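User: Hi! Is it possible to get a structure for several chains at once, not just one? Here's what I have:
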Amino acid sequence: MSWQTSLFREFPEAVPQDQFVARSYEALHQQGFRADNAIAFVSVCRDELTMPLVDVIENTWGEVFMFSSLGGMLTLGKTGFLAAHRHAPIEDGRERYVYYALPHIAIDARGEFGVYHRPGRRDASHTCGALVAFQQELESKSLQLAVDPDDLEQSVLKRHLLGKLRYGDVPDLVSLTRIAYTVIFEELERMIRLTVDPTRSDYGLFTGIQIHVPEGRHFVWPGTAYVVVDGKQMTLPKME
Ligand SMILES: [Zn+2]
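Assistant: Yes, the chains can be modeled jointly so their relative placement is included. Here is the combined structure:
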């Protein structure tokens, strides 16, 4: 089996990451968003593998305010969201925000999910490592549920994911990544409801799953995307 077989079996709508960002820009540009009147916010995993996507977003929108945390979870809270919004340019009295939020997964040359061969390391490593660590903890049947002050981001990740699992279930990594996607999308919408005033601000929201494949190539499975202008929500077509 090859990575292509695995990629298009599980994520048939996946597109190269450049295309994902270009389509998001085109969709927002039609609604009056430009690099000089909008600011982009990005929530991806801390893993260096996610940075090429951030680079494409920065080349498109200018420097981004990073929301990132382990697994791509949104842990910055209201203070973080409000601070980010205050960095937006104001044009004709309005602010424009562009949110990107995506968990990630890797596929190796043999088509195996969660495996990535990093330069300078003999053994393969897990991607996303935070999700794999949680999966191993579920398998061990000795889950630490209390918030660990020495492991805050992973504690938040576990709490969110557990809320979506049936007791005793240990999902495979692709399923767990899809659950992480749902958690991140719902949390993003909740934080936007708590912090954005749609009478003053327009925004676009782009979610999905980042997929790293061999030879430094990166795809995105596009999830829910929409734009809110003057308080009205418009769903964007799946960006195939
Ligand atoms: Zn990760």
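The CA atoms of residues 44 and 50 lie 7 Å apart. The helical segments are 3-10, 17-29, 51-61, 77-85, 129-140, 152-162, 173-195.

User: Great, thank you!
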